[in-house]
Amino acid sequence: MVWCVGLVTLALAILQVHSQYEPNTWINRDGRFYVNVNQTLVDDFSFDQSRYAASWYTGQLSWNREINQGWSNIALGRNNEHYPKHSWILPVLATPLFVAFGLLGTLFFNVLGIGLAGAGLYRFARSFLRPESAAAATIVFLFATSIREYMYDYHIDVLMLAAFSLALACAVTGRAFVVGMLCATLVVIRPTTLMLALPMAALLSERDARRSFLRAIGGALLVFAVVGGVNAWLFGRPWWVGYNRVLIVEHGVPRVESATDVFTVAFDEGIKRLWSGTYGLRDRFTIMGVAGLGLPWLLVKRTRYALAAITTAAISLVVFARYEYEGDRFHWLAIALFVPALGAVPELASRFLKLSIFRSPARAAIASGVMAVLVVVAPAFADPHLETILPTTSFTRELFKNISTELYLPAALYLLNVFAFSIGVARIFTTRIPALGAAIGVGVLFIEPLRTMLAANDLRVLSFGAAGLCLFFAFSRQRIVAAPFLVAALLLLSVDIALLIAKVFVVAGLLVLAARFFAKSLTTQRRSWFAVASLTVLLFVAGTARLASARGEREHLSSHDVVRRARAFAGTVPCDFLAWEHMSWECSHIDHGVYDMVGLALPNGVTVQGSVVAMVVIPTASYGGVRTLVARMHGSSRFHLTWATPDGQRGGVRMTVFINNRQVDLIETSLDESPIQERIFATGQASNAHMEIKIEVRPSAGRSNALVAVDGYFE
Asked: Cα-flanking dihedrals φ and ψ of residue 209, to 5°?
């Protein structure tokens, strides 16, 4: 059941990501730097990052006299190498998928992390709650908070959440050695996670404390030994990581600084920013305030653990209030400790009010009707003059605003309605595993596709429909009787919504069937490790086959690999920062848009006369200077060059073409949009020779900024 809920979580995450998908666009913020490491590992089996942004630290670029830790992505190695500042653990673990699927493998890895987090959190919460409550709380935590925004990403915090969730699951099942390994991994990624030792110790102490602690320490020492050896090789000390050796520039002079130097914010200012800033917990984890209603229950049921969780959350607030860089993601792990308290709310309400659908279907249906009425009146709480309607604190006012605009209906009552709805779904599709119904029922209310559809539908209609469904589920003892009502109600609400929920069940069902098939062969820990190793080898084999197939295809200037290996310059300034989301070479602080960079201009690409074509954009440099593209390709005796002025862009450039440093042509392009044109050049070289293509672009007389799109290939 644990992995079934995990796979339902994965299915929901896949649908969430699918609704946002555009080529390359999930590579954001630090994701760029992690992909750089993936690429150097595949190309050179090295962590060295000298090919990316080295000019920031060594060149005189007019803007780089001051580079702080927020801008730097480099750590100085023991022999002055440029190694990644960010943890190398994420790209190392993701490399098998990167090899097998290319850049898309990084998105697969991130989504897989969400699935693992769902499995781990469910198993952890299950030790406190009934299955359906544990499943509902897990999905609410992952999909009704800002964590959902990071699913379409490639981010270290998703990996950390997955590792921590699995550690919690292992702690409540007595696998202390694995707990030690996972917690040590978290510590070497981010040392501040040492604060999580308190709740972990509380959980481990519930089962043969002495033996559990010794085994956990053994697992941690194993990880520390391996990672310490790598860190000593990279940075000269086993306890040093990239954050201890961040390369910055001060007054034009490079120097090394430690991340420990950036905990300098005044505490009162930091707490205010942490609560209500750009990434304020008040707005991004609003629904977790409901967990406060279940906290007294948690204190009574598992006092030692509850106290440790509260202490850890307090430490997290104190530590990161002083951190210069803001982010709700720094608190994910501490907040995850309260998932059982969140799930306790509908469970306690169900027991206290005797509304469990298994004991009193009529009362459950009535409760759903009450919820529908609340949906109708909830918008009143969004009144801009709320303080004149209801005397309340700032927190309550913001809570009600979020409730009405983000579908977070009033506190525990909303969770109770979701709980009843989920059980209703479970009764139709599953009679023995209500946790799956709870996971799916809650999940479809929060994933982006449904939220988008709700913007075009009446929320009150949907809510009455949900209440009606619960009523039908409650009074229908036979699944065959209730199923037609389900289909009819969904179709009345929206055909699109009905199809979306059908997709959830299909995807989740296929994943669950696959899990049951593989679970039979993974009955022991040894077989599980063997399966993971076999899958890793299979991914590398698939990746090797993919790369071999790509080498057999004709190279184009516009192919990803050629663009990735190319060099670009604005005048004499090297453009050595690869913006993976645009597949373009960026001259930082000089380029200010996708069409100001040399590359493929993703996700929209290049449009010529109404059709999207595979071409490389080469703009003139800022203020009308020269821009240069240098690419190495496998050549032959003839080179075909094509060019055009893209739709909606300014043309009028002088394009000088060199092959192996020999000028072969000077082309003046049209001032306006133009069709694709072609010229063929004789190279005088044999087939499969390595050749260098250099294209210099200047604005035509009287122009300041312009661009041209080019492509080319050897026969």
From this structure: -55, -45
**Phi and psi at residue 482, in whole multiples of 5°?**
-80, -30
**CA nearest neighbour of 33 among 77, 87, 80:** 87
* pLDDT-flagged residues of the chain (< 50): 354-369, 371-418, 421, 424-432, 454-489, 491-493, 521-523
β-pair partners for 599: 584, 617
* Global pTM value: 0.79
The whole-number pLDDT of residue 55 equals 82
The alpha-helical segments, DSSP class H, found in 45-175 are 55-58, 89-101, 104-126, 131-143, 156-172
Dig out the tokens for 360 from the structure. 């009193």
User: In whole angstroms, how large is the CA radius of gyration of the chain?
Assistant: 28
Identify the three-state secondary structure at position 697. Answer: strand
Per-residue pLDDT of 137-194, as tens digits, reads 888 889 878 888 899 999 999 999 999 999 999 999 888 999 999 999 999 998 889 9
Q: Helix/strand/coil (H, E, C) string of 238-291? A: CCCCHHHCEEEEECCEEEEECHHHHCCCCHHHHHHHHHHCCCCHHHHCHHHHHH
C-alpha span between 587 and 316 (Å, rounded): 37
Name the helix (H) or strand (E) containing 183. Answer: helix 176-189
Q: Phi, psi (5° rounding) for residue 393?
A: -85, 170
Dihedral class, residue 648 (left if φ above 0, else alpha if ψ from -120 to 50, else beta): left
Using alpha carbons only, give the angle 449, 451, 455 rounded to the nearest 5 degrees: 115
Closest C-alpha among 570, 563, 579, 558 to residue 53: 579
Q: What is the pLDDT of residue 428?
A: 44
**DSSP structure class, residue 555:** P
Is there a contact between 111 and 14 (Cβ–Cβ < 8 Å)? yes
Going 196 to 202 to 208 to 211, the CA torsion angle's sign is positive
